[in-house]
Amino acid sequence: MTTFHPAPEALLPAAAAGVSRHVVVAPGMCSGGSLVFGRIGDWTWEVVAESCRINVHAARTAAGDPAYLSFYYFHVRGGDVVHPHGLTFGDELRVDSRSFRFGSQSVITLHRLAPAGLELPAGPLDPAEVYENPHPHCLYAENFNRWIARTTAGSNRDLAQVTPPDFAYQELAPLPNAYSPRSLVGRARATGSFHPEGPPGFHEAGQPVTFPYTLDVVRDLNGAGLMYFASYFAVFDTMLLRLWRSLGRTDEQFLRRKVTDQKIGYFGNADPGTGFTVTVRRWRSTASPDVEVADMALRDSATGRLIAVTAIETETEAAGAS
Amino acid sequence: MTTFHPAPEALLPAAAAGVSRHVVVAPGMCSGGSLVFGRIGDWTWEVVAESCRINVHAARTAAGDPAYLSFYYFHVRGGDVVHPHGLTFGDELRVDSRSFRFGSQSVITLHRLAPAGLELPAGPLDPAEVYENPHPHCLYAENFNRWIARTTAGSNRDLAQVTPPDFAYQELAPLPNAYSPRSLVGRARATGSFHPEGPPGFHEAGQPVTFPYTLDVVRDLNGAGLMYFASYFAVFDTMLLRLWRSLGRTDEQFLRRKVTDQKIGYFGNADPGTGFTVTVRRWRSTASPDVEVADMALRDSATGRLIAVTAIETETEAAGAS
User: Which of A44, A60, B19, B72 has the CB geometry, 3.0–4.6 Å to A143, for a possible disulfide?
Assistant: First the structure.
C-alpha cells in the first residue's frame, strides 16, 4: 500500500523562498465553472501555511473565533500557452509559488504556471518577473489575501479584519512597494471599476447593460457558509456569457475565449437569498479589435452595497464587428 | 525552495494494493457545488493511473483518439462524522483508495474517507468492509468507470466504449462478483430509477414533480468539453433545492442536510444548449420520518433520451410533516 504524505521535512527548509511543484491537470482543476481559480487559491493557502507556519485551514483569532484568509484581490494573467480556460486534463505544468510580506493582516502570494519543461530562471519566483517581465507562455496569478472574521455569528455581512496571533509573517520577503496592488484595488473599491475612465487605447463598445443574479445556494457557498471566492469568477462568467449571447456570439465562441487578464476585487460577502445587480461595460481595443475588456460591478440589489468588481480582458476569436 | 513531487519510487510498490493519504480539507474540496465529488473522482483517476500504469489523464484509443475514463456510476455513503456536505476547511482525513479489476473496459475504485486518527483495520482497503461492514464514522465512495471515446468529433452524443491498449488492468485484484453494481446500474438505466418500486420501508410523499434545467455552459462542462461528472451532483442538488423550497423548507435546512447515501448512474452526455427535464419523486421512511429518498431522472427534453438517474437519501433536520 502506497502512502502519500508530503514529507514534513521536505517542506520546512526555506519555505519562505517558495514552493515548486509538478502538476498533471486533472478534471477537478480545469473548466467546471471556476476550478482553476479555486485550485490556485488552495495553493495560496498551502504556501502561506508553509511559509508562515500557521494552520491556515483552521485558523483562529486571538479570541478563539474562526479566522479566514479571505481573497481580497485575485489577478490572473493568461499566457499564450497556459491561460485559465485553455487547460485540459493531462496538461503538465510546473507551478512555482511564493508568499510575500504585506503587513500584519494580509499577504501577497504569486504563482507562475508554466508548461512543464519550459526553460525558466533558476531560484525562487522573482516578483520582478511577475510584474515586469513575464514569460509569454506562462499564466501568472497574484493573490492579495486578508485575514477576516465574522462579527455576527451566522451572518456573512460586516466581516472584520483580524490578525491571528500565530500568523508568522515576519520571515517573508517584503513585496517591493512598487508592486503593491493597494492603490489599484482601493480605486476599484471607491469607483466600482478597475477602469473608471476606460482602459487606455480602448473605446467603449455599446451601452452599459445590467443583469440580475441570485446567489446560487448550491454552487456559490464554501465550506464555511461564505460566498466562495472562486464562485465570483463563475458568476461574472455567467454575466459575460449573457453579454456575448446578446451580441449574437455563440456558446462555442465563449468556450474558446482566451482570457489574457482578469482582476477581481472582493469587497463584500452575502447571505443565501441575496439578489444582485451586475452592471457590465465593454471596451474594444482600438488597435486590435479582437481584444476586449469587460468591466463589471456586482451589487446587492436591496442595499446597493458593492460586493465585487472585475475586469476581464479577452481575445475574442472571430467576434465580428458588433 | 521546496519541491513537491510525489516521489515516483514511492508510488510503484504494490500500488494495486491501494493508496493511503492524509488530507487537510481545503476550500477547493468542500461545498461550492460538487467539489468533494470532483475531488474523489480525481483520486479515482490517480489510483487507476498508478495501479494500471497508464496515463489516465491523457489516454488514447488504439486509433490515437482521446479516451476518457468516464464515470458510469458514482455511489457515496455518508457516515455520521464524514458526510459529503458536512466537510469544512481544516478537517483532517485519512483517505484510503483502491482499484479493482472489472473487465477490460472498466474498473471499480473504492475510497474510504475517515476522520484522521480513527482506528482502522490494517492493510489495503477490503471490499468486504466497504460493502458489508462500513465504519459508521466514515464516508465511502464507489466509482464504476468505463473507457469511452467520442464517435463524432465535437459531439457529446453517441460516446462509444473503448479499451486503451495500455490499460494494464490484469494485475488488479478482481472485485468479488457479489459486490458487482452491474445489475443495479443496469436496472436503473432500464427503468429510469434506482427504486422503480420505491425503497423498502418507505412510502411515497406527494406526487412526482417535474422541473426544467438548461445545461450551464459556464459551470457544467469539463476541460474536454464534456458534461462534467461532478456537475451532475450540482444539477440534481439544484432540483432537490427546488423541491425543498416547494415544501416550505429553508435554504438553511438545505445547507445542513446530511446525505447518507447517493447514487448517480451516468447514461448520457449532452452538448451546450441542451434543455433537460428532471422528474423528481420523494419517499419518506415509515419508521424514521426524517429520513427521505429523492429519486430523479434527467432526460434530454427534445428527445426524451435518459441522461442520468440519481437517488439521494437524506436525514432532514426538523423537516416537518410535509
Answer: A44
